Amino acid sequence: MNYSSDIAQGVTVPAEPVLRLSGITKTFPGVRALGDVELELYPGQVTALVGENGAGKSTLVKILTGIYQPDSGTIEVDGQETRFPTATAASDAGVTAIHQETVLFDELTVAENIFLGHAPRGRFGLIDWAAMNTKAKEILTRIGAQIGPSTVLRDLGIASKHLVAIARALSVDARVVVMDEPTASLSAAEIEELYELVERLKAEGKAILFISHKFDEIFRIADRYTVFRDGEMVEAGMIADVTETQLVEKMVGRAVDTIFPERDRRPGADVLTVAGYSHPTEFADIGFTLRRGEILGFYGLVGAGRSEFMQALFGVTRPSRGACRIDGKVAVIRSPVEAIEKGIVYVPEDRGAQGAVTAMPIFQNITLPSLRTTSHKGFVRMAEEFALARKYTERLDLRAASLDQNVGELSGGNQQKVVIAKWLATRPRVIILDEPTKGIDVGSKAAVHEFMAELAAEGLSVIMVSSEIPEILGMSDRVIVMREGRIAAEYDREGLTPETLVRAAAGYDGEAAA
Amino acid sequence: MIRDFVTSREAILVAALIALILLVESRFSGFAAPGNLASVFNDTAILIILALGQTLVILTRCIDLSLASNLALTGMVTAMINAAMPGVPVVVLIALAIALGLLMGAFNGLLVWKLDIPPIVVTLGTLTIFRGLIFLVSGGEWVNSHEMGAAYKALPRFEILSLPVLSWIAIAVIAGFAVLVNRSALGRAFYAVGGNPHAAVYTGIDVGKTRFAAFTIAGGLAGLCGYLWVSRYAVAYVDVAGGFELDVVAACVIGGISIAGGLGTVTGAVLGALFLGTIKNALPVAGISPFWQLAISGAAIIVAVAFNARSNRKQGRIILKSAEHAT
Amino acid sequence: MSLADGTRPRHLPDRLSGRGARVLKSWELLLFGIAVLIFLANTQASQYFLDPWNLSDATFNFTEKAMIGFAMALLIISGEIDLSVAGIIALASTAMGWALQFGVGTPGLVAIGLAVGLLCGAFNGALVTRLGLPSIVVTIGTMSLFRGISYIVLGDQAFNGYPESFAWLGRGYVFWVISFELTLFAVFALIYGVVLHKTNFGRHIYTIGNNPTAARFSGIRVERVKMILFLLTGLMSGIAAICLTARLGSTRPSIAYAWELEVVTMVVLGGVSILGGSGSILGVVIAALVMGMVTFGLGLLNVPGIVMSIFIGALLIGVIAIPRLVAKLRRS
């Protein structure tokens, strides 16, 4: 850790930040994403932004790049108050960002992806493709990417796409560069190239906001840190003044154990056994055993293949290899219908797209997979539906005006309760909860945790995918960590620390960093 | 580079087109003669122009079903003005036709942009409205050849370098589109909006405004085609170009313009239109009843869209490092 | 189960607003109001309008289209569309006319009409659900293909000479002024209304239209439901082909030309969202009445059908645009 402080001391710290955010607040229906946050970025310095998923980092990036407008608060560039009403305004002010690969265009060439919106113009204001390709090649060479500028983006792998996203950010003459998990999908060699690039950008006097989950790289290249938790800025300071353990503590918060329900942890007989589950591109060799009344946590970085595996287990996609047994009997699951029949249900991470049917009423959402039991000879029976819906919404303490209210009108937490109620009404053996408390308020979170504990106590087996360390530590009996589509480690909850999880997920050995 | 072209959709279309021409030539020699091919091109000119307009709209993930009605209405208006006021120069009439077409296109675009009404609903409505307006302005009467001025009828037929003006206009529109689509910021915005509307916002592109522009340009071209159609066939009546809107969509689909947006080329649209135009011209020559044409274009659409879907199959997310290096 | 704080769980009412309040705010009521206004305008416009036989004649303007409209409504609610319905009519009618040349009787003709409709529906459905193609493009293609086959068979000829018993299916009366077609229309309105609003299958249709991914994740066999809907649309087109052919007494390849647009207009006017997920059969029924009455009323006034189409087109855009415009103005 010494080398980072050397760098920090080597640079004469400028007094004035190039960009300053103060009092920024942003709320969405049902959830406050950012509350009164501060951020300062200094020229020639890297500021690491640290926080768990849902801490508000990506909302901040969107405000910095003109995609979202803050509800209140000010943005200052060089001490001058300003606004970023559009993406163009932000980039004109010299703020550029490396977004994830999802904001690129698959059908356009690499050069065009880099220059769309500010392409070099020739005669009559027409796009100069030759100049564009040359400039694109220059930038790609600068970041060490071996990609032809006229390649169509769809032909590239995920890492190459990410390099294009980086090139795009560098194609404008920026003073502030936001890097949103820039190394997430890069190989070791490419990461080294990126570090060199960051050093060059620092030398050029650019201010860099570096968002990352990997503590080794934060300590290697960052000068400053800012920690976000639950949409609020917790602390900021110099990297040289802090240790990794302290940073994890600030990020996770101290009260890890206290807020979670106490429960009897004595799992019963084996219920579900998975062996050798593999997919051509998404995951490989996943195997584990789930017991009655057990909560099995799945931890990992975003994109580690956890959701992809769960969807294969639920029959949405089909694994290329692997077998699964329920109560010792081989279970073939080729579709969600078959999974539900065998008692496996899945509460997806993407509530809006995969879980809730937002334009339909609560009771119809809940009875959807149970229509066979509430109906008579194929005809719906509303009274039965309302009765079933009421039974489970009351159990989950749903806050709504009526059972006929559309799910889209509820808060995120209550929407999640509806999706959970929908599956409980099918009386499953195994429930898979994929990021069950993502994007929901603290009160609903506690209710979901409470409920999860009750279900386990009643003998239901729970698989919980979560990227939140306190949730994983507070709720799980055992934890499986996935990395790059494979199981990286499996732990008993006893004695498990946040650091262990973070290291296993990021993929570097404990002894090397210690 | 060469391999890219050989496997590209355009190359397949060119090959299909050549095969089609040779097939007809083998049964009726003279079909592939340059003079005859030029007349096929001339016959297809209007379809090409409309298909290019429709291409812009489809690129932005929309569709315009009102183009043929727009064409018929502007055609009728110019014919009536010409019949009533023979003194008005043809150039003014053409300008008027384009302006009227632009206006109708802008109306569609505005409803899509400002009120966010699905394009298929908007243009299904304006399809019948524009068509009905023809009846209102004409009272159901025809404007026949003898009522039209000589200059009005002569312009598209006038030959420059032994090619009619109609063909030259199509060539000019193709050239203009090649520049617009490939070399202008607006042209690239069409691709961005259709390819990934979410990401377009990140690059500072206004999705609604870009769609509005596509509808307006397509409308203007339909207006131009209104004059061209009516003067070429020297007759205007309510049902001019009835059902032609679907031929236009067919040309685009055959040309590889993806209905899902963001994918397609000017060359593809032109080739798609030429493919349909060649079939239309070849059937009588090859001794096949022209009644086969509809079924053949229908089958061609189905084959084309099935082919598109095969080449654009979505691939799953690549998480495993080994999988990435393998692809 | 008791809650953490020991209080009893809160009781959620089934519904907040009563049935009456929901009806008052419904699209169907607005449309019904329009229908009543048009009805009154028609009575003012012509003294012949209220004649029972005239009114009965008027129903032929919409019965066949509406029968297809019911199935189309289900299909559009599920998020798909079928623009080939008029092409199916042409093909089914041509097949019946062709069979007629071999002396096939009325039951055989009906069977052929239904079978061709089902086959066409199966073809569309297979292309959409098996190959995953967008239905709007597929059915633009099959629309040309189906009608194109009619043209190949018939050219500029026509099939004539349908037997009297077959003609009854298009021209016959069941009781007094109640025609066979009107009876079919009423029966199908009831059947489709029950299927869409009262069965699990109907609930699945709505769910798929609102969120196909969530539907799949909830264990609904999305592809199978869509396949059934394409089959139903084909079948209804076959039935419409039988009625229309019987009524006209002849088959030309241009039969039912451009009906697909009128059917879609009727469905959308009836309050079915073109984006899928919402709509009712009652709305389609009222929309059919509105369109039928407008056609008939303007016909009594000697206004040509083409002008009526302006009204229908404006209605289609207006009914969707005006609420959005008002909401937009209210916000700003």
UniProtKB/TrEMBL annotation, chain A:
The keyword Ribonucleoprotein does not apply. One of its GO terms (molecular function) is ATP binding. PROSITE patterns: ABC_TRANSPORTER_1, ABC_TRANSPORTER_2. CDD domains: ABC_Carb_Monos_I (cd03216), ABC_Carb_Monos_II (cd03215). Its EC number is 3.6.3.17. It is a peripheral membrane protein. Pfam families: ABC_tran. Residues 19-255, 266-509 form the ABC transporter domain. One of its GO terms (cellular component) is plasma membrane. It is found in: Cell membrane. Keywords: ATP-binding, Cell membrane, Hydrolase, Membrane, Nucleotide-binding, Repeat, Sugar transport, Translocase, Transport. Signal peptide: none annotated. This is Ribose import ATP-binding protein RbsA.
UniProtKB/TrEMBL annotation, chain B:
Keywords: Cell membrane, Membrane, Transmembrane, Transmembrane helix. Its main location: membrane. One of its GO terms (cellular component) is plasma membrane. One of its GO terms (molecular function) is transmembrane transporter activity. The keyword Zinc-finger does not apply. The chain crosses the membrane at residues 42-60, 91-113, 120-140, 160-181, 212-230, 291-309. InterPro entries: ABC_transp_permease. It is a multi-pass membrane protein. It is found in: Cell membrane. This is Autoinducer 2 import system permease protein LsrC. It holds the Pfam family BPD_transp_2.
Automatic annotation (TrEMBL), chain C:
The gene is lsrD_2. CDD domains: TM_PBP1_transp_AraH_like (cd06579). This is Autoinducer 2 import system permease protein LsrD. It is a multi-pass membrane protein. Its main location: membrane. One of its GO terms (molecular function) is transmembrane transporter activity. Part of the ABC transporter complex LsrABCD involved in autoinducer 2 (AI-2) import. Probably responsible for the translocation of the substrate across the membrane. One of its GO terms (cellular component) is plasma membrane. The chain crosses the membrane at residues 70-92, 98-119, 131-153, 173-195, 228-249, 255-274, 281-300, 306-327. Keywords: Cell inner membrane, Cell membrane, Membrane, Transmembrane, Transmembrane helix, Transport. The complex is composed of two ATP-binding proteins (LsrA), two transmembrane proteins (LsrC and LsrD) and a solute-binding protein (LsrB). It comes from Roseivivax jejudonensis. It is found in: Cell membrane.
